[in-house]
What we know:
Largest sheet: 7 strands, mixed
Number of helices: 11
Oligomer: single chain
CATH architecture of the domain at 31-199: 3-Layer(aba) Sandwich
CATH class of the domain at 31-199: Alpha Beta
Radius of gyration: 19 Å
CATH topology of the domain at 31-199: Rossmann fold
Order of helices and strands: HHHEEEHEEHEHHEHHHH
Shape: globular
CATH superfamily of the domain at 31-199: Alpha/Beta hydrolase fold, catalytic domain
Helix content: 25-40%
Strand content: 15-25%
Amino acid sequence: MKTVFLLIMVLVAGDHSNVMGDHVKHSKKTPHTTTQIIQQKGYRAETHTVITEDGYILTLDRISANKEGISGKQPVFLLHGVFDTSYVWINNIDTSLAFLLSDENFDVWMGNSRGNPYSNTHLKYSPLSPQYWNFSFHEMGVYDLPACIDYILNVTNASDTIYYVGHSQGGSVFYVYASTFPEMAVKKFKIAVTLAPAVFLGHANELTRLSSTLLTGNKWLLNPSRVTHINLSNMYQFVTRDCDDSPLATPFCKTLIEVNAGFDGMSFNHCLGTHLSMFR
Length: 280
């Protein structure tokens, strides 16, 4: 598991001198964080901090009341996919799942997995150290998810169970949790919805298969000591600056994304670059 996860991190490793969170704070343009977008749309936003058993400090974003000021009752936890943040749940603005759930009087909580721009600190390790990055989605399911769920249920005290929605890696994380703690999963989750969960790899595309074949056995490249930083901001800048601002580049960028994510022109969000402007 860790080998495959480290492979992905190697492919997007960036400048070691720049910490992800610093880019969010010091962007040349006004940063639009999850909390800021929630507040701009007229919802009540909160930010909470959770510390996992193995020392990772995670940020939870919460929509505690809708535009009418009505507080949500039933808690629901949304967890993003790989290389993403809680921002994914509010980046379609009015049609975003987080806002739709809040409008239906849910108490909406959004997680940020270890290593993303909102959860890139640790009690002991710096995100520039190899020790910090020695994890995979397995640790997210064993440590991150239990810590977040227990915290939410303790804070809300409104229900003994919680709804769960996970996208891609967020689905994988849930299945790790459920298979590791089956009794707790039955007790604490009322229902779990996994969107495009990455569980079985039998239908992976050819690019993924080729990359895995070429690099999985490369112990030197996949050594955790060589993975010291993932610069997500570079990836988002490419999408926003080069794809969104250039009509000529848009078809190329669309194809590049579909090669990795699958071809579905009818469902492709052509405003993706604009919605990712928080990292510009």
